[in-house]
């Protein structure tokens, strides 16, 4: 049985207290909310903090605030299950509800949080193993080693973005509020992620993700499609988030974002440009989907062959677009666990 290493746990009840603890302990401290990803990684010695700062008791992280014209603000500590139980959120932001519904399974969704999923660690076949397995391999660049087995001749880590929420938030145009020792700042979800398997967030370790702000834009529709080997539990090996504004039968704006095909979510602007200003006829949808498949470069460090994932990126993009235009057959509608 894998066991947690020793650590000290703090449960501050205010942002100021949490920031002070993080500052006092520096690199030894780690933020934890639900812990559904962190604790298993601590057991495998992938992440080794000596101090954990629990943020679940901080009021700002557990609020849902509706603004009549500006959308909704979600506290980063809100559980995935709470999002799913909120009917107004599901109506206003279908892609968010879909993403939360296909993350793991009910017990995990009852513990895991929106902020935790947005900040979840990148994954890789060579990294997500026990300490003894990684030691036998000689470790990897992401933890304790000097070489990335995915690309041994390179100098970077190719671990894959594993968040279902990240591509959805980018597609929805979300803004994130971070609070740190130097004050607070706002950052677009699209700018929050870096194309680096190790330094994958544009967030300092001592900063806390406090809120996610979703705009309410009239006429927009959204959806999310996820590929994984099993119908439950598994992380995505492909996620396709699409948000689109239709008017008079034409697409006037669109965002297509793919997750789990690189170290950060990938927005496919070339495909978006094909859609804009055009009626979403089958040939237009197929042309956009071909571009998606051509642009992405998945590597052999996740489940399924990379060529299959490229093919499914095209298939899932077509299905997402057809869903938003009412063109899906009953058998193609994705099921939720």
Q: Give me the count of strands.
A: 13
What fraction, in percent, of the residue positions are helical? Answer: 25-40%
- Using the coordinates shown, work out and report the CATH topology of the largest domain: Uridine Diphospho-n-acetylenolpyruvylglucosamine Reductase, domain 3
In what range is the share of β-strand residues?
Answer: 15-25%
CATH class group of the largest domain? Alpha Beta
Q: Any idea what the radius of gyration is? A: 20 Å
Q: Helix tally? A: 12
User: In whole angstroms, how far apart are the ends?
Assistant: 28 Å
Q: Write down the secondary-structure element order.
A: EHEHEEEHHHHHHHEEEEEEEHEHH
Mean pLDDT over the full residue set: 95
Net shape: globular
Q: Provide the domain count.
A: 3
Low-confidence stretches: none
CATH architecture of the largest domain: 2-Layer Sandwich
Strands side by side in the biggest sheet? 4-5-8-6-7
Main β-sheet, in a few words? 5 strands, antiparallel
Class derived from helix and strand content: alpha+beta
């Amino acid at each position: 049985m894998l066991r947690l290493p020793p650590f000290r746990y703090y449960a501050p009840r205010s942002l100021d207290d949490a920031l002070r603890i993080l500052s006092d302990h520096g690199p030894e401290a780690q933020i934890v909310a639900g812990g559904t990803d962190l604790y298993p990684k601590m057991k495998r010695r992938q992440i080794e903090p000596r101090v954990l700062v629990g943020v679940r008791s901080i009021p700002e992280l557990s609020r849902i605030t509706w603004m009549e014209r500006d959308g909704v603000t979600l506290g980063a500590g809100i559980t995935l299950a709470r999002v799913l139980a909120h009917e107004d959120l599901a109506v206003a932001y279908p892609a968010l509800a879909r993403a939360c519904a296909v993350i793991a399974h009910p017990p995990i969704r009852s513990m895991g949080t929106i902020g935790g999923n947005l900040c979840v660690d990148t994954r890789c076949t060579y990294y997500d193993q026990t300490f003894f397995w990684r030691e036998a391999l000689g470790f990897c660049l992401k933890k304790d080693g000097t070489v990335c087995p995915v690309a041994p001749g390179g100098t970077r880590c190719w671990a894959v973005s594993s968040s279902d929420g990240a591509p959805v938030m980018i597609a929805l145009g979300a803004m994130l509020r971070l609070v740190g020792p130097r004050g607070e700042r706002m950052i677009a979800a699209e700018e929050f992620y870096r194309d680096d398997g190790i330094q994958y967030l544009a967030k300092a370790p001592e900063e806390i993700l406090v809120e996610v702000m979703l705009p309410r834009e009239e006429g927009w529709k959204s959806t999310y499609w996820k590929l994984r080997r099993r119908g439950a539990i598994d992380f995505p090996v492909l996620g396709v988030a699409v948000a689109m504004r239709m008017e008079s039968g034409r697409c006037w704006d669109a965002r297509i974002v793919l997750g789990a095909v690189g170290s950060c979510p990938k927005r496919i602007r070339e495909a978006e440009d094909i859609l804009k200003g055009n009626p979403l006829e089958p040939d237009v949808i197929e042309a956009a989907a071909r571009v998606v498949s051509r642009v992405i470069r998945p590597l052999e460090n996740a489940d399924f062959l990379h060529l299959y994932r490229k093919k499914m990126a095209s298939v899932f993009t077509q299905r997402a677009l057809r869903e938003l235009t009412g063109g899906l057959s009953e058998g193609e509608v994705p099921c939720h666990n």
